[in-house]
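Exercise 7 asks you to align residues with tokens for two separate proteins.
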Amino acid sequence: MSLNDYATVTMPERKITINSSNKNRTWYVYYTKRAYRNSKNQPTSEKILIGKQDPQSGMLIPNKNYFDIFGQDRILYTKSILDFGNFFAINSVLEELGVSNILKKVFKKDYEKIISIAMYMLCEGNVLFYCDDWCSETFTHLDCHITSQSSSRLFEGISYENRMRFFREWSKLRSASEYIAYDVTSFCSYSAGNEYLEWGYNRDREKLPQINLGMYFGETSRLPIYYCVYPGSILDKNHLQYMMQDNEILGIKKVKFVMDRGFYSLSNVRFMQEKKYPFILCVSNSLTASKKILEKYRTILTSSRYYSKIHDVYATSKNTDVYGVDANLHIFYDPTKAMLEENELYQKISILENRLLQIKKIPSETARKKYEKYFDIAENDDSISYKHNYKKIDNEKAYNGFFLLLSTDTEKNADEILEIYKRKDLVEKSFDNLKNHMDLKRIRCHNKSTTEGKIFVAFIGLIIKSHMENILSEYMDANNSTIEKVIRELKKIKVITLQNGKRLINPLTKKQKEILTFFNITEIDIKNYLAFDRQT
């Protein structure tokens, strides 16, 4: 009789040996009928093949021997086999962080759909055409049969008022003493009719209209706190004060900011001083005030007396008001950064020189300015001659490796300020997660309200992913793993529902058990959840 003539059954708990066939990687299951010692007094046993292990569910596909031993009444037909591991782990994250309770409080009947789509985006990306398939293949307690059309209606119904209610409640849970990293990214789109889409500075070098998204990210909690969407044509530094005005609405107090050079303006630093927001702000080397300071320090800062072994840079600090506020300016020189910037400069010059060799006429005034930064150029009727302007090249590379951090946090030294500033990379990683892991690099929504709703749900997914990365960092470092690999591994944990309603999980692997320990989840927790969920 064929192994496939029977449905899967529960794997016996005792007297079982599972062996693999090297040829086709089939796992054969043997039952030990009796154990004894042979004539040489060596332990041995009598085993019989009772079937093979189903690779999907981990259950037993029995053969005739199984029923000869256990009887026909042991057969339990399988009603469904559904993915479960990711739902259970992600649900535990939402419960731990308090996100589920906030969503339920704010969105009431729609909160389960928001959670479902956020989970789908995290596990599969944001192409919602396949969301209904995912819902059908995943075991959850949520009302989550969502189609692409119903998701659009859900997004459109997520109002500004409810989003701000969520952010207010979520902001209450943040550490009041932590620095908030603030940065901006852009999303592009081919869609027409979306009023957010405008031409502006494109960070991904794409020739498409875009929308901008500014985000607060907690440096201690390592979690996203708040975001704001605004038209793509508005400059980052011009939007900063509007973004910060939401702090009062959100109830964010005693806030401290860390920001990149794109946000510096005299108006912005004075605004933050007026609001009494301590800040760390990178200021551009190209500012007139910066050039004067660097000219003074660039020859002396490389002295060993300024070397910081903590960050492998040279550093000094001074109090100044040349940037519009009374603050500490921390001046750094990084030799490795200087070498990389010099190599990049010479590569850029080489590319421009190759172009000059191939053209007979400078195509535009803009192009001429690019070339004249490094070359003296003479144009004839049908040819171009040039020579390197070494003085200009030397002037440009004179400040390589230097960077300036302006800080009103006067209690911290240069090393502490640099450590805080480096953690700002977390928000850039979050932008990468939104664009690539959750596939928001292209906004496919055709109107403003749907766009806002979809980004909000993706933001919930980002909170989950950020927390997963936080708690799994040790595991991922030790195992050369990623969140994507973890999600694929947890997807293998299945719930088997039998015709009699009983629910089982396939046996957990050593790797799955190790991953779940970082979520404080055990196999017993899963079994208890399934038993309770069935009763309710």
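Second protein for Exercise 7:
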Amino acid sequence: MSTVPKPWLNSYPPHVPAEVAVDQYASLAELLEEAFRRHASRDASACFEERLRFRDIDELSQSLGAWFQSKGLARGARIALMMPNLPQYMVAIAAVLRAGYVVVNVNPLYTARELEHQLKDSGAESIVVLENFAITLEEVIDRTAVKHVVLASMGDLLGFFKGQMVNFVVRHVRKMVPEYRLPLDGGRTVTRFNMALAEGSRMTLRRPDIGPDDVAFLQYTGGTTGISKGATLLHRNVVANILQSEAWFKPMLDRVDGQALTVVCALPLYHIFALTICYLMGARLGMMNLLIPNPRDIPGFVKSLRSYRVNMFPAVNTLFNALANESEFARLDFSGLVVSNGGGMAVQRATAEKWLKITGCPVVEGYGLSETSPVATSNRLDVQEFTGTIGLPIPSTEVSIRDDAGRDVALGEAGEICIRGPQVMAGYWNRPDETAKVMTADGFFRSGDIGVMDERGYVKIVDRKKDMILVSGFNVYPNEIEQVVNLHPGVLECAAIGVPDERSGEAVKLFAVKRDPTLSEDDLAAYCRENFTAYKRPKYIEFRDGLPKTNVGKILRRELRSGAG
């Protein structure tokens, strides 16, 4: 096994250990149940000015978990969750895990094509979906293994009168719920979320024997090839990252005395960053998640923040930037804010400086991937200014910078960032060939990012090994864009690249050669809207007579990037 020097340990802040005992719990279910008991009387979530305590999450998730078990699902069955940030999501995650099943997180804004692939690839047999997105499910459900649908609504868990009012506004005033009709053939069931809770409350949750090597999450990502595949995260992977992150964050959070902590959960819970840091580590520490269902509504977001004294604010650069440029945001009380942690995409210095000026709390950048559950590195939380690096490997984590031959490079030299630790995934779901491409013989995950480590152990990303495009913290893979666009009858060939964008870090630019001379930019843009969720859609479309290629016919994206620059 490779011996990796660890210069970063000399740069650790006080009270942060080099190693963490990550085998304290047999499963996430065990960790969550202990947290629910220990923090029973504390608030676990706040949404629409309504709060749920950890005791409530405990009881509701037992009911929903028992309901799932009553459907005859085998241990380890996959259950998809397709919702924005709502308390129903927190309940559903705990229910699925405690019942011995596997969570498949789904972006609720997925197109029918994207949803169908994920449901079929995961083999999901059940889904909890917010009714606003049921029309997408309706399009594909007959081509999937889904037999049990739980329909959530925005007003669930808000009490009868408030819930009814919220649902009326959502459905009839704002018309946010398109008409749908889910087929009931083949023994399929469709049950309202609150009805499933009511039925489950009369049942008893059977306690399955869940072990550290059981699968907890299938977290879908494009990996290195653009083929959407599930990073298989075992219970031990996610438990480890919760405990690793706790060791890193707790010394700073302990500075907040005399009150329960509040974390802003504006990043979507279907994204691994918010899932682990906001919900799961938050439960471990007894933090209340301030759930923001629609962070794009910046004025509404700021209005929600006025009612709370927040202590921790995870976000991506685009969100930090949008809030920092909202005049009302600067009028909020930031006296309790001790951690502003950035991830998902590179934090820009201008944004970090503006945020610090307004809040007095520096943005601390970290780094991770779905494949690492996600946190691999972080800057010290006691920094006073933006560093421009992704920080140090967190406890029980090794980072090796390697050349194309797999050899460690010298400090200060560029190479691929490779990560080893208990948080690294078991592999890609049912794709051993893809797993082999990213795992080394000595157990390191090859990230595909090119970085440099300095003599203090700080890592800086300098380039990407692959052609991945990073839009607002989400991976976009040119292969996927090109494969779908090339199916358009009016397109002869195409190529997608990332171009700099002030708002989202990068945006997708599509180059296309016409097969049909009448094809317009509007036609192609409309086609992309039908087939891609918002962050994947090309922001720019440029028609060309031909695309640059190698002598064997491979399109040269690097030349397109050079020309675009």
